[in-house]
Amino acid sequence: MSEPSTPVENCGYLCLEMEKNSDYMKCGCRAEVLQEYTEKTFDEKLMTISKEYRDMFKSSSVKMHKGYIGDVKPVAHLIGEDTDMPTKDDTRKEILPVKKWYRGNNCLLLNGIKLHRGRVRVPVSGFYHVYSAIEFNYHLIRDTERNTIEVHSKSPNMKHVIYKSNIKNSKKEDEIMCTQHPYERSENLVFSRYDTYISGDTYLEAGDEIYVKVANISYASSPPKNIFGIILI
Asked: Which residues form the THD domain (predicted)?
């Protein structure tokens, strides 16, 4: 007849070092030893890991903004929705923002990117590729007495600019990139058009907003051909 087993043998015997740099060993039932070890070390480990993550994000150039998920890159791709017509107050300004961007069909606003009044807000700091295309359609004014062809414009050039500002100080804006081209005149045309495109890589902080401005905004009258986009690289 076999000898009766002890309670420790029935529950699984385990010896475990309970403290670092110590000879203190706890032996007994596996479940009880593991529970005691977990209670002693969990809070300490949690505090250590939490501090490591806080230090990592403080020293990193990555800053989070609401709505961002780290494994998918923020991206926006928009096309023009409607023509932006200047108000009476706007007519005194040389350059105005393009505010009407379409959100449906093949347009994208993903992973924390927000669109508000024509401005795209980025959710995380980093280097972004920014691009925009605008088609200008303008009317040529002919003066037969002076034999001249002019364009009704306050600006001598078709100007297409991308600006940035931050939600903390929306009144301050910085020019990111710009392209300009003189109005083209022709003896054989009443109307003319010109396509502009700008793109480049720039560093943006979480909460920065980027937006497009053009001179003579009423000439940007082909919304489906106007494009504005951004992607984290």
From this structure: 74-233
CA 131, CA 109: separation in Å to the nearest integer?
Answer: 15
Single-letter residue type at 190: V
| 126-141: b (≥16 Cβ within 10 Å) or e | bebebbbbbbbebebe
Smallest CA-to-CA distance from 120 within 209, 38, 31 is with 209
Best CA proximity match to 82, nearest among 105, 107, 102: 102
Q: Domains in the chain, start-ordered, CATH in brackets?
A: 7-59 (no CATH), 75-232 (2.60.120.40)
Contact between residue 216 and residue 153 where contact means Cβ atoms under 8 Å apart: yes
In eight-state DSSP terms, residue 64 is B
Quick: pLDDT tens for 181-204: 777 766 556 667 788 899 999 999
Sequence-ordered list of residues with C-beta below 8 angstroms from that of 92, at least 6 positions apart, any chain:
none
| pLDDT per residue as tens digits for the range 206-219 | 999 999 998 877 77
